[in-house]
Design a protein that fits this description.
The protein is mainly α and 112 residues long. The chain is built from four helices and no strands.
């Protein structure tokens, strides 16, 4: 069986399963004398995307989020600069330029 046939078979099985579940859902809703939407809500199966988020976002929340984003960015930049400074220090200690040290570290796979 080729890959295309296997994928086609998987799609067919998924479609058959979805159709079967939809049919069962409609039967359960009808036996409960409800619409499908009411049955989904009552049974807790309604998709979450149906509900709107009641949380309101204020301007201060956006400012706080901006401050947090800036702090994360600054921290990551500082960590990168610290790593670069450490690599430069190791290169100087070993008597090489930074480029020589980096190529040496790539070859030997070690940072001393």
């Amino acid at each position: 069986m080729s890959m295309r046939e296997r994928v086609g078979h998987d799609h067919h099985c998924a479609a058959a399963t979805a159709s079967f579940r939809q049919h069962l859902l409609e039967e359960n809703a009808q036996s409960s004398k409800m619409s499908v939407e009411q049955f989904l809500r009552m049974s807790g199966l309604m998709p979450v995307t149906d509900y709107r988020c009641e949380m309101t976002v204020t301007k201060t929340d956006l400012v706080d989020a901006d401050y947090l984003r800036a702090a994360r960015y600054a921290t990551s930049r500082q960590e990168m600069e610290t790593a670069e400074a450490a690599a430069e220090r190791r290169a100087i200690e070993s008597g090489m330029t930074v480029e020589e040290y980096e190529s040496w570290a790539k070859i030997w796979g070690a940072h001393w």
